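Duplicate of #3305? Posting structure anyway:
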């Protein structure tokens, strides 16, 4: 299993994202992923599926200590007096006594990040959270946040069609890793001729080549959502080949500003 490392902690480079997975499909998806060998599971309070994720982990029979579980604070939960109660609710929903990683899901325009991180550190001190991180933080906000707490990741949209070099530079300078969500650009990567050519050369799918491009980069993890058993299995089959330096460069050259996740409350991505 390939790992990424930050602040001395090793984390599986490929995880299962659970955004939009609901009900029995979520339970079975998590259980099946763990059966296949996934050991990194990502959820969030905003997804409304923490309980189902917890059931899937329980039904898998995999020892909890072997699984890296991430969840994220909702928009209102970042207020300092709400961080603790919200995290406790997540623990109950997940059926666990701690999470491996707790993230601020979105930077708040109303609540200072230091205040939220201070409350999160108290959870860390209490043993209920192993590591802290953020999500959807552009470079300047990330640089400010790492001055306040020992973060290990920034989880952001990242795929060949979205340039994240500036953010990667901050992660590498500050001993963080970048966690890529929507790593397949919500299916848009299959339309790229360059990716098709590289995939054919390796007898792989475009999705597999894209995920390989991500995890082959220094300090990058990827958490693709996969609703079907076939896609969960396919996404795992990316560690039996490697892209050449030229192929990595060809894929990187596809970068443009094709951002797919940009809600009204998103930060200024250029900051």
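Output from current build:
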């Amino acid at each position: 299993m390939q790992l990424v490392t930050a602040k001395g902690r090793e984390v599986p480079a490929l995880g299962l994202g659970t955004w939009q997975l609901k009900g029995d499909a979520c339970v079975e998806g998590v259980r099946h992923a763990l059966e296949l060998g996934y050991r990194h599971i990502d959820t969030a309070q905003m997804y409304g599926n923490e309980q189902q994720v917890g059931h899937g982990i329980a039904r898998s029979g995999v020892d909890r200590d072997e699984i890296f579980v991430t969840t994220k604070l909702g928009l209102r939960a970042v207020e300092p007096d709400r961080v603790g109660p919200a995290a406790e609710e997540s623990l109950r929903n997940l059926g666990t006594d701690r999470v491996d990683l707790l993230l601020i899901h979105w930077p708040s325009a109303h609540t200072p990040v230091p205040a939220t991180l201070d409350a999160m550190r108290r959870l860390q001190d209490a043993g209920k959270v192993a590591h802290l991180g953020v999500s959807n933080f552009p470079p300047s906000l990330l640089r400010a946040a790492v001055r306040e707490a020992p973060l290990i990741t920034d989880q952001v949209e990242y795929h060949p069609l979205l340039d994240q070099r500036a953010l990667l530079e901050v992660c590498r300078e500050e001993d963080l890793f970048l966690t890529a969500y929507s790593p397949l650009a919500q299916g848009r990567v299959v339309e790229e001729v360059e990716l098709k050519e590289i995939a054919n050369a390796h007898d792989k799918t475009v999705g597999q080549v894209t995920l390989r491009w991500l995890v082959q980069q220094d300090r990058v993890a990827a958490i693709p959502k996969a609703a079907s058993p076939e896609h969960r299995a396919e996404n795992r089959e990316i560690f039996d080949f490697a892209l050449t330096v030229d192929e990595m460069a060809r894929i990187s050259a596809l970068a443009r500003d094709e951002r797919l996740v940009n809600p009204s409350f998103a930060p200024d991505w250029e900051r």
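Confirmed duplicate; merging threads. The longest strand covers residues 129-135. The chain has ten helices and ten strands.
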